[in-house]
TrEMBL record:
Keywords: ATP-binding, Ligase, Nucleotide-binding. Residues 13-416 form the AMP-dependent synthetase/ligase domain. The keyword Nuclease does not apply. InterPro entries: AMP-binding, AMP-binding_CS, AMP-dep_synth/lig_dom, ANL_N_sf. This is Long-chain fatty acid--CoA ligase. One of its GO terms (cellular component) is membrane. The keyword rRNA processing does not apply. GO terms for molecular function: ATP binding; long-chain fatty acid-CoA ligase activity. It comes from the Bacteria. The lineage of its organism: Bacteria, Pseudomonadati, Bacteroidota, Flavobacteriia, Flavobacteriales.
């Protein structure tokens, strides 16, 4: 069948890839499977139930879940195939942002996963005139449950109406509004059509690896990134397009357990997760002691010296793989074919290290506005430090100032209720301005240099690209997070969150008392001196104008919950600066100036 709308993936899966375990979610400690047939039947029930509630094509329905789960997938199908518009919302945003999104989109019904999210939405319900009802996936006393919609749709007498509506939906029709979490200001409603998402899925499909001897029923996916994020959602459809089984991870905290249980073949990741996995491996290897630590460090040296990516060749590489890197693969379940990385730049040294350890990482690049993928590496064509070749159905043009612009079927329809902002992000030739700086090399690989909006100019007129500096800095074991600042100031400085766990192990080994809480650790003069050496080393690789002249250690962990990281663990630069404004002022002697 021809795929033109997002719900066509589910219908095709039933026709071509029927299986017992299409989606799998853990409830009360047990994995529960939903078959392809049951998934489609449940989607039809939701469609019929929503029609009985009075939902019409174009009406907006919000979906919010703490962790991705099968109910979200069912709702997505049921909403899409009757022409309604889904509005997926991040669970971690503030009630104020909920208020803005619900009113901006004129949400009519909202489905939430649990009691905590229900209470969050109830806080703003009275402010949203369009909101008629809230349903929960978990059973919450006193709350309407999503089973009520399924019960409403039990009678299949109105299935003809569902099919008539489904047949009337065009590829160009609006499928979803995704509000970007944004690093500054109010969320923007990105309007994506069925064609936007479908064209991206079909263009990305040839880039994923096919392994000889594997049937579609053999492939297991572990999905843990928020499904409301367009990166994970596009892949969610891509997995359906191939008939793969999708296991929804319980949480980031339980990822380790879930990997052991599922033994996945493909996982999507963000660079921060790769960094954390490597830190855990390194800590374990270096703390083993004696011969084990010597072997571990020797193997890392062999890995680093390896000239060509891929399988081990030569006796040293084979021994290193057998003794050390085979255990890395076992730690990821033993079946990993590839990790797919997006959302931010991955440190090239880590990328190379994992590739050489037999864990290929396909790094890609895109934005919510491009549904999302613009370019991605593919098997046999991986170039570390790049985001791969541009998708075949897209046209990328590098503007005179280095900004990456793109045109093609996956570029969004515009910002909801904001024509002025929509006009601002397109060139006269109709190319979407990504806001990223980059270039395409002679082999056709796209390189991302920095975010255009994140680049800043010091008072001396020198431009600083902070992301590139921050990525290099995070190679240090002592630095968990860093933000380079200095817009309009006389010099670049940095706010740094130490890796508090590593620092405590370091302090124990050195018999230094740094305290036990983040507040105490951040005040340690010995730690500041040690991190100073890391900054000196970093500065030795930078131009004079880029060098970090001063830094301050922050007394807390940077997190999504505190509002300074996005759900995909990127910095909210304005929020970071505001939260640590006293430390910022101290670096620039603003208090003294006042």
């Amino acid at each position: 069948m021809s795929i033109k709308r997002i719900f066509d993936f589910a219908h095709q899966a039933l026709e071509k890839y029927p299986q017992d375990d299409m989606f799998i979610t853990k409830y009360h400690g047990e994995w529960e499977k939903t078959s392809t047939k049951e998934f489609n039947n449940l989607g039809d029930k939701i469609s019929r139930g929503l029609l009985k509630l009075g939902i019409k094509p174009g009406d907006k329905i919000a979906l919010i879940t703490t962790a991705s789960r099968t109910e979200w997938a069912v709702m997505d199908l049921g909403i899409a195939q009757i022409g309604a518009v889904s509005v997926p919302v991040y669970p971690t945003i503030s009630p104020e942002d909920y208020d803005f999104i619900f009113n901006n989109a004129e949400v009519q019904y909202c489905f939430v996963s649990d009691r905590e999210l229900l209470e969050k939405v109830q806080q703003i319900k009275s402010n949203v005139p369009s909101l008629k009802g809230i349903f929960t996936f978990d059973k919450v006393e006193g709350a309407a449950n999503w089973n009520e919609i399924l019960d409403l749709g039990n009678d299949d007498a109105t299935q003809n109406e569902v099919e008539d509506l489904s047949n009337s939906i065009n590829a160009e029709d609006l499928a979803t509004i995704i509000y970007t979490s944004g690093t500054t200001g109010r969320p923007k409603g990105v309007m994506l059509s069925h064609q936007n998402i479908v064209s991206n899925v079909l263009a990305c499909d040839p880039r994923i690896p096919r392994i000889k001897g594997f049937d579609y029923k053999d492939i297991r996916i572990l999905s843990f990134l928020p499904i409301c994020h367009v990166f994970e959602r596009m892949l969610f459809y891509l997995y359906q397009n191939n008939g793969y089984s999708v296991y929804f991870a319980e949480s980031i905290e339980k990822m380790g357990d879930n990997i052991k249980e599922v033994k996945p073949h493909i996982m999507t990741v963000v660079p921060r997760l790769i960094e954390k996995v490597y830190d855990k491996i390194y800590d374990k290897g270096t703390s083993a002691g004696g011969l084990k630590t010597k072997i571990f460090l020797w193997a890392l040296g062999v890995n680093k010296a390896k000239k060509n990516l891929g399988k081990p060749s030569g006796l040293k590489e084979i021994i290193a793989d057998k003794l050390v890197f085979s255990k890395w693969r076992e730690g990821l379940g033993g079946n990993i074919i590839t990790l797919v990385s997006g959302s931010a730049a991955l440190q090239p040294r880590l990328n190379k290290m994992f590739q050489n350890a037999g864990i290929p990482i396909l790094e890609g690049y895109g934005l919510t506005e491009t549904s999302p993928v613009i370019s991605v590496n593919s098997f046999g064509k991986i170039k570390v430090g790049t985001v791969g070749h541009v998708l075949d159905n897209l046209q990328v043009k590098i503007q005179e100032d280095g900004e990456i612009t793109v045109k093609g079927p996956s570029v969004f329809k515009g910002y909801f209720k904001n024509e002025e902002m929509t006009k601002e992000v397109f060139t006269e030739e109709g190319f979407f301005k990504t806001g990223d700086i980059g270039h395409i090399d002679e082999e056709g690989y796209l390189h991302i240099t920095d975010r255009k909006k994140e680049m800043f100019k010091t008072s001396g007129g020198k431009y600083i690209a902070p992301q590139a500096i921050e990525n290099q800095a995070k190679a240090s074991k002592f630095i968990e997070q860093i933000m380079v600042v200095g817009d309009g100031e006389k010099m670049p400085c940095a706010l740094i969150q130490p890796d508090f766990n590593f620092v405590q192990h370091w302090a124990e080994r050195k018999q230094i008392n740094v305290g036990t809480t983040p507040e105490e650790i951040a005040k340690s003069p010995e730690l500041k001196e040690r991190i100073g050496k890391e900054i000196d080393y970093l500065n030795s690789k930078l131009g004079n104008w880029e060098r970090i002249k001063r830094f301050q250690l922050t007394p807390e962990v940077w997190s999504i919950e505190t509002g300074i990281l996005t759900p995909t663990l990127k910095l909210k630069r304005k929020a970071v600066k505001e939260r640590f404004i006293d430390l910022y002022n101290k670096m620039y002697d603003h208090d003294q100036e006042a």
